[in-house]
């Protein structure tokens, strides 16, 4: 297992941690200022959200690399099914390709997929997962031409109805095996999987070629809002060391991306302090 | 699979569906009025919460049976671990025995156990599950003397931090096998397990001797409050027929208990209408 106590070059910032992926939150730092602040602190990489990029993907990608950082990924593909998805397959696939194009422009090796919830008119998650498999399989061919990998991120089962019919690593690995494309894998986010005692075995089943990302935050024992009340690493009940041990035992040794949605706490702080906390917690408790 | 379309004698009311298990909610019907209303509608049984019973356990149990109903169960044992548990093992076990005594007085064959969350000072759910196993094993011997069975209810993983370190049927079955007492089994609640594609296999692993209850409600696609915004059967995305098929395939053919926590919807309605809806939905969509 890697020792981060004296080397945090594997640390990446997901910009959601600074809040400005949602209107009305965060301190409003520009992309350039975020990049500079991460570089100053020795972060290894950065993950953006599409709304921050607009039509500046190539420019921002170059800016990140000029600062000595990597673009680690892009959030995210559109919902592929469920009540929050765009109306109709064509609109969904158009937006999916636009997200892939943006990732390619940025030089982001990974585009994260949040699958979307239970397709209206169906019950349970089975039919929705089939829709997702079909749509990801089609997009995977398009993404491969741009060297973009697609990371299926199982979300916590609390989002099963509306945001993600994919709620366990087991189902994510099954989906990868069914799609069977070399650029389709999984992302592991401690917020979503901390409670799952089958995680280590499922990651071994995925294998190193299918683990495309590792996301850090913490699950607060008493969570007030399942969307915007995530904890900073160390403040919650997730066994972060054990989860990383499982991820690394399965062969992953890539970036570790801090993604803390926290409207009432971390998003209200000075971003400089938040970034300092990310570094300190990464070295001490992750 | 049983046909409920013309026979709802397996239907039981969990009184939480009428809201009066929480202060300030519900229409305030007396226990006697609830029993009478259930009997009029052909319910087969009823499940109470401890706060409704006080020191009238024997009297209420007799009242229920005189009305032609069964007392199906009692909610619930105290949290056995985690931040919401009583302070100290002795206080927890005293209250656990008091709950068992009340179930025995009522003539309730089953006492439901909600395990409690992650024990302070620990990370992940592993250590907390060990505490739970130890405490349930001790209580099981006491409960056996009163012919009370203990039903471990895995809650949805959203409650993992504070209310239940037991969040999957897999872990619940493992816990039963570890404790290995004939009066320790599981309760299956669709709200908590609807997203789990391993459910059918885990129930087969439990076997008919270890399934002590089946709880009905629905998971609303867009849930506003994970505690008090449950749906009535048919209004959500749970595949209720498929889940019951799995439960019955594993050998369970006992009562089906409606338990709808719904502060902003069902708890605001006339209890008579709520009970009518329970019957109608039970016959049509469960």
Task: Walk me through the structure.
Two copies of one chain form a homodimer. Chain A has 286 residues and is an alpha/beta fold. Helix content of chain A is 38%, strand content 13%. Chain A is built from ten helices and eight strands. An eight-stranded parallel barrel of chain A has the order 1-2-3-4-5-6-7-8, surrounded by seven helices. In chain A, helix 6 (169-179) links the parallel strand 5 and strand 6 (184-189). In chain A, helix 4 packs across helix 5 and helix 8 (199-206) runs parallel beside helix 9. Chain A binds chain B through residues 82-83, 117-118, 120, 122-126, 156-158, 160-162, 167-168, 170-171, 194-198, 219-223, 226, 236-242, and chain B through 82-83, 117-118, 120, 122-126, 156-158, 160-162, 167-168, 170-171, 194-198, 219-223, 226, 236-242. Chains A, B: Pfam families: AP_endonuc_2. Chains A, B: Residues 35-270 form the Xylose isomerase-like TIM barrel domain.
| CATH arch. level architecture of chain A | Alpha-Beta Barrel
Number of domains of chain A: 1
The CATH topology of chain A is given as TIM Barrel
Q: Count of DSSP E strands of chain A?
A: 8
Q: Strand order, main sheet of chain A: write it out.
A: 1-2-3-4-5-6-7-8
CATH class of chain A equals Alpha Beta
Shape of chain A: globular
Distance between the termini of chain A: 11 Å
Poorly predicted runs of chain A are: none
Report the sheet-strand fraction of chain A: 5-15%
The major beta sheet of chain A can be summarized as: 8 strands, parallel, barrel
Please name the two chains that share the biggest interface, counting residues whose Cβ lies under 8 Å from a Cβ on the partner chain. A-B, 38 and 38 residues
Say which CATH homologous superfamily of chain A is assigned: Divalent-metal-dependent TIM barrel enzymes
Q: What sequence of helices (H) and strands (E) makes up the elements of chain A?
A: EHEHHEHEHEHEHHEHEH
GO molecular function, one term (chains A, B): isomerase activity
Protein name (chains A, B): Sugar phosphate isomerase/epimerase
Domain Xylose isomerase-like TIM barrel (chains A, B): 35-270
InterPro entries (chains A, B): IolE/XylAMocC-like (IPR050312), Xyl_isomerase-like_sf (IPR036237), Xyl_isomerase-like_TIM-brl (IPR013022)
């Amino acid at each position: 297992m890697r020792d981060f106590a004296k080397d945090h070059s594997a640390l990446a910032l997901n910009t959601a941690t600074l809040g400005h992926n949602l209107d009305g939150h965060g301190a409003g730092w520009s992309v350039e200022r975020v990049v500079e602040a991460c570089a100053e602190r020795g972060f290894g990489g950065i993950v953006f959200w599409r709304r921050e990029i607009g039509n500046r993907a190539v420019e921002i990608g170059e800016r990140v690399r000029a600062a000595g950082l990597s673009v680690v990924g892009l959030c995210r593909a559109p919902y592929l099914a469920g009540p929050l998805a765009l109306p109709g397959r064509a609109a969904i696939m158009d937006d999916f390709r636009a997200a892939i194009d943006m990732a390619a422009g940025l030089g982001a090796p990974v585009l994260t997929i949040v699958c979307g919830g239970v397709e209206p008119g169906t019950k349970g998650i089975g039919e929705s997962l089939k829709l997702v498999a079909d749509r990801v399989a089609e997009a995977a061919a398009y993404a491969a031409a741009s060297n973009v990998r697609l990371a299926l991120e199982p979300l916590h089962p609390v989002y099963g109805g509306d945001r993600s019919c994919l709620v366990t690593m087991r189902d994510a690995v099954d989906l990868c095996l069914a799609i069977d494309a070399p650029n389709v894998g999984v992302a592991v986010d401690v917020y979503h999987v901390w409670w799952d005692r089958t995680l280590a075995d499922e990651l071994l089943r995925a294998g190193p070629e299918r683990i495309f990302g590792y996301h850090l935050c913490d699950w607060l024992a008493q969570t007030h809002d399942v969307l915007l009340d995530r904890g900073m690493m160390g403040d919650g009940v997730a066994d972060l060391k054990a989860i990383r041990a499982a991820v690394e035992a399965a062969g992953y040794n890539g970036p570790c991306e801090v993604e803390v949605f926290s409207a009432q706490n971390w998003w209200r702080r000075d971003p400089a302090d938040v970034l300092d906390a990310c570094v300190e917690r990464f070295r001490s408790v992750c």
